[in-house]
Amino acid sequence: MSTILNGIAASNGIAIAKAYRLVEPDLSFNQSSVSDPAEEVNRFQTALQAAKTDLETIKEKAYKDLGADKAAIFEAHLLVLSDPELIQPIEEKIKTDSVNAEHALKETGDMFIAMFESMDNDYMKERAADIRDVTKRILAHLLQVQLANPSLIAEEVIIIAEDLTPSDTAQLNREFVKGFTTDIGGRTSHSAIMARSMEIPAVVGAKEVTQQIENGDMVIVDGLKGQVHINPTEELLAEYREISAQYEEQKAEWAKLVNEKTVTADGYHVELAANIGTPKDLKGVINNGGEGIGLYRTEFLYMGRDQLPTEDEQFESYKAVLEGMDGKPVVVRTLDIGGDKELPYLDLPKEMNPFLGFRAIRLCLEDRDIFQTQLRALLRASVYGNLKIMFPMIATLDEFREAKAALESAKQSLIDEGVSVSENIEVGIMVEIPSTAILADQFAKEVDFFSIGTNDLIQYTMAADRMNERVSYLYQPYNPSILRLIKMVIDAAHKEGKWAGMCGEMAGDEVAIPILLGLGLDEFSMSATSILKARSQLKRLSKAEMENLAEEALNLRTYGEVIQAVKKVSK
After folding, report:
1. CA-based nearest residue to 454, from 256, 188, 232, 214
2. CA gyration radius for the chain?
3. Highest mean pLDDT range out of 56-70, 295-309, 396-410?
4. Can you give the pLDDT at residue 403?
5. Using N-to-C axis directions, what is the helix angle for 368-381 and 397-416, rounded to 10°?
6. Exposed (0-12), middle (13-18) or buried (19+): which is 470, by Cβ within 10 Å?
7. Taking CA 15 as the corner, what is the angle to CA 532 and CA 290, rounded to the nearest 5 degrees?
8. Which strand ranges, in their side-by-side order, compose the sheet holding 157-161?
């Protein structure tokens, strides 16, 4: 019998495939005595060999798909599995104490992990993570439980997970992963944003998918309505195949606009740009007619690895994007780590409220080595295209001035070394903190541009965590208070002859677009897959009429009233 779960439509489209559970399995066990320690050692050796076979396969696939640096992680894991310093104590414990292999593995592994984690040497601390990973893999084989590994997926599937980290999502193989659904999350969670950039349908916040869906179940992910169908009937499958075909036809109509400029019905031009996470996203930007990159999230260069990217690695990534955009503007956001984006190898302290804590520009201004490495890489790449640099999470003018001074210092160091640097780099900030929006008239005198990051601006203004489903009703992009802050930023920019863009998810929202046009937003940056739909919408709108709508919306009292006002002009 078919089951329906309702969630949040996070990425448009229909996906139909078998389920692949990306869920941490139950690895619990009880300590027990064994009557034949030699046989138990053999059982351990069998699990050890199986773990090695797994890692050889993963290493080869990582080398082919992700490059030598990612493959090196698994090479290190294989070395740990061959280290007698780890393996012999486990076997000795089984023989001496006559205990089951699971217990001997856990006791010995935990001892080494604690020892390495207590060391001051960063390299040795990283070995603790290696031991944790490999002992978990051996334990899974001892318990005959399968560890999920998306890199080994070789058939069309729909990922089922409690949540997906940004690095999980970035490593999904688009060829086989047709969609995903999660228990938690919202439209602005990073997994949802990545799904849109990968152009795969997604439903998040469906609450019970990991409880209700087993490996191999047939699943429909309806990213248009926000529904997940488990083991649908043949009739429902046929109906959804038809819906999917109709959606593809609609996309084909939008695709006719790929080479057109974004011009309103009364001849007003705005720029439609794309948000990206890696150079691999460029293809989607070009295929969807992006007029620039409005947000390059550089933190994905730092994720899914066990050490910081080098200056040369970063330079190559930035250069690839700048060259790929062929002179079109590319706005690169400097490292924005913190909140829900962690780097295990930085070993940052746990915080009570990480979204309001030590993150983004705050981290970069304290750890100057990390910041200088990135700034030098960006400046070296600047001669290969139209680079604009943007600092995130700026709360005060002093922070902006300090960040800009760091940029100037990096520039001077390169010039002193004889390295060419572009002289035409615009430097701006993300406006995502209410204090910055309120003081936009002063910031506008010193920055070259604003890009409004509505994902955070909304949660900070409404004091509502955007990852928390219980307060999701307060995540209100069209609340008049948010619209007034946006107007302050746009007006302040224009008064100083500067431009204002938006790189939050609101920029691609069909309800928000008419209001933002009326408020005078210059650049709308969104997931690449939203560009053609937005262009089609903007071609039908008159800027003059939307100015009247925006004026009305600013003076309404509630979120619901604004939605009704937009619906009236959209009929």
Report:
1. 188
2. 26
3. 396-410
4. 98
5. 60
6. exposed
7. 20
8. 3-6, 227-230, 218-222, 14-21, 157-161, 177-182, 202-204, 8-11
Query: What's the one-letter identity of residue 497?
Result: G
- 499-536: pLDDT as tens digits: 999 998 899 999 999 999 999 999 999 988 899 999 99
Do residues 400 and 423 make contact, with C-beta atoms less than 8 angstroms apart?
no
Q: Torsions phi, psi of 80, nearest 5?
A: -60, -40
Question: Average pLDDT in the 103-118 region?
Answer: 89
Q: Which of 77, 103, 141, 190 is catalytic?
A: 190
Span 313-327, pLDDT tens digits: 999 999 999 999 999
Residue-averaged pLDDT of the chain: 90
How many helices, marked H, and strands, marked E, lie in the chain?
Answer: 22, 16
Question: What proportions of the chain, in percent to the nearest 5, are helix, strand and coil?
Answer: 55, 15, 30
In the residue annotation, 190 being an active-site residue is answered as yes
Predicted pLDDT at 338:
74
pLDDT over 80 (residue 171)? no
By DSSP bridging, strand 386-391 and strand 426-431 are parallel
Selection from 173, 160, 162 nearest residue 230 by Cα: 160
What are the C-alpha distances in Å from 213 to residues 3, 173, 274, 454?
A: 10, 21, 34, 34
Q: How far is CA 424 from CA 378, 383, 384, in A?
A: 13, 9, 12
What's the pLDDT band for 280 if we cut at 50, 70, 90?
A: confident
Q: Is the pTM of this model over 0.85?
A: no
Using alpha carbons, select from 509, 508, 518 the residue that is nearest to residue 546.
518
Q: CATH number for the 37-142 domain, one of 2.60.40.10, 3.40.50.1240, 1.10.3720.10, 1.10.274.10?
A: 1.10.274.10
Topology of domain 269-556 in CATH is: TIM Barrel (3.20.20)
| Residue 466 in tokens | 């955007």
Backbone angles phi, psi at 479, to 5 degrees: -60, 135
Confidence (pLDDT) at 122:
58
Instruction: Give the three-state DSSP class for 478.
Output: coil
Using CA atoms of 263, 264, 268, 269 in order, give the dihedral in degrees to the nearest 10. Answer: -30
The DSSP secondary structure of 204-239, one letter per residue, reads E--SSHHHH--TT-EEEEETTTTEEEES--HHHHHH
From CA 106, how far away is CA 97, in angstroms rounded?
Answer: 14
| pLDDT score, position 192 | 80
Q: Given 77, 103, 364, 503, which residue is catalytic? A: 503
Distance CA 472, CA 255 (A): 33
Q: State the fold for domain 3-24+149-252.
A: Glucose Oxidase; domain 1 (3.50.30)
Cα(17)–Cα(232) distance, integer angstroms: 11
For CA atoms 47, 52, 54, 55, give the dihedral sign.
positive
Report whether pLDDT(117) > 80.
no
Q: Which two tokens stand for residue 525?
A: 């940056």
Q: What is the pLDDT of residue 428?
A: 98
- For the chain, give every domain's residue range: 3-24+149-252, 37-142, 269-556
Spatial CA neighbour of 296 closest among 283, 306, 281: 281
What does the pLDDT read at residue 199?
A: 80
